Amino acid sequence: MKTALFIMFPVPSHYNICFGFADSLRRQGYRVVFMGTPNLQTHIESQAFEFVELHYMQEIVVANWRVAVGLFIVSALEKKVKKARYHDFLTSVAAVQHVCKSIQPDELYIDEHLNFYYLLLKSTYPKCTLVNTKLPTHRVPGIPPLTCSLPFKDTIWYRLYAWWLWKLCMVKHYYGSWRKKIALLGVDEQLFLRRVTSKMGIQLDAYINPYNLLHDGLLGAPIIHLVPREMEYSWYKMGPNERFLYQPYQRKSERDHSQFWEQFKPLLARRGRGEIQLVYASLGTLSEENAKPATRFLNRLMAAFSDLPTVHLIVADKRLFANKPENIPANVYLMDWVPQTDLLPYCDLMITHGGTNSILECVEAGVKILAYPLNLTADHPGNTARMVSNGWGIQGSLRWETEATIRQKIRQLLSDSSLVEKRKQVKVPPIDDWQPKMDLAKSK
Predict the structure, then answer these.
(1) Cα 236 to chain center, whole Å?
(2) Mean pLDDT of residues grouped by 10 in the chain (444 residues)?
(3) Spatial separation of the C-alpha atoms in residues 211 and 108, rounded to whole Å
(4) How many Å apart are CA 28 and CA 288, to the nearest integer?
(5) Are 207 and 107 in contact (CB under 8 A)?
(6) What pLDDT is stored for residue 440 in this prediction?
(7) 258: which of 40, 67, 422, 441 lies 20 to 30 Å off by Cα?
């Protein structure tokens, strides 16, 4: 039995979109193992995949100059801090090498966010491939960065605008990079990686691609984009080292659904009789940075339903559920958790933050989408732009739209029957599509 080992960025959404591909390998007879942090063990094992704990490399994030000044003072005064960081880096390198040695994978799949592992492990495990849980993040002519929420067209003017947006991204990238180098006196993770790869005979500069959103990319490394080709702009040109491979997957729930369905059985029956319409809203797992704007928006959204008596709203948000606001309209139901993929086929509309998983689950269920990008520095705006371009729904401004505007867009979508006809259906590749003749791991 062959073994496939996945090293994923340790957040649930990255695993969720990867489970479909992993399951297709399992159906072909592979033993599938996921590395992760302890808090993700149940999440992984609930899908009947093997779990092995990994001590991940810790990256220092210098979000602003206040943080930079604090780190600069510590780095200048505490010499032991730099040695401790380097020791932790070497410990994490040894940890991933130890786990790989114990598992002995035939094929190794590494999250693009963790692409430095590729450089460290490629020589030992030749069948090593990057997996991208988002749309492509590297620069391609005519394709804007994923931080752009404007739906694009394949014209010379849009191509020029895309070129300009990438230049702005590079300015921000180099600005943030130098701020971090100043804060850490040049002793950062890239310096540590350069030291280690140099000893391995690897020229780091030959691989690094700065024209990549969110993090440096790797030039020429084989990569699988775990999203449908149809989600990206039609004029996107793939390189010889990349491909799209999307496998839908129905996750096994870690929780008991029965209480939820018992509570909403009468509501779903009314929806089935055509008496009401049902809207579902979720903004994903919220970070501390995005919690405040998300909470303000959800409060405006719930208030907007006070004038939509025949439209009912189910909201999934743990923070709001723990501190329920007063005067919630009678047609609004605030929950701490919802079985999203199971509920969507009963919904007429989903209001989402623009996350990849939510958009794809809506398309699979045939549900209209109203997207409000939440994290403007990640892929939410770009996902939303492509969703609009594909005719799957419309978008709005999470931070600025009023109750009236939100309500108007909900009415527009619920009454627009033509949108269903325009919405494209995602084509799912067959499970046996992944064969040695197509193996990207041989391309480098």
Answers:
(1) 20
(2) 96 94 95 97 96 92 90 89 91 96 96 95 94 96 96 97 96 92 92 93 91 90 94 95 90 84 94 95 82 90 93 89 82 92 94 94 92 93 96 94 95 80 48 44 45
(3) 25
(4) 41
(5) no
(6) 54
(7) 40
Looking from the CA of 221 toward its CB, the CA atoms found within 13 Å total 33
Chain CA centroid to CA 133, Å: 6
Tokens 């193996």 belong to residue? 439
Cβ neighbours of residue 209 closer than 8 Å, sequence gap 6 or more: 138, 216, 217, 218, 219
* CA angle, residues 60, 289, 392, in degrees to nearest 5: 110
pLDDT for res 4:
97
User: What is the spatial distance between Cα 419 and Cα 416, in angstroms, rounded to a whole number?
Assistant: 6
The residue whose two tokens read 């752009």 is 148
Q: Strand, helix or coil at 217?
A: strand
- Cβ atoms of residues 94 and 197 within 8 Å: no
| Residue in 271, 397, 405 with CA at minimum distance from that of residue 346 | 271
Pick from 378, 372, 383, 379: nearest CA to 295? 372
Q: Which of 277, 60, 89 is nearest to 179 (CA)?
A: 60
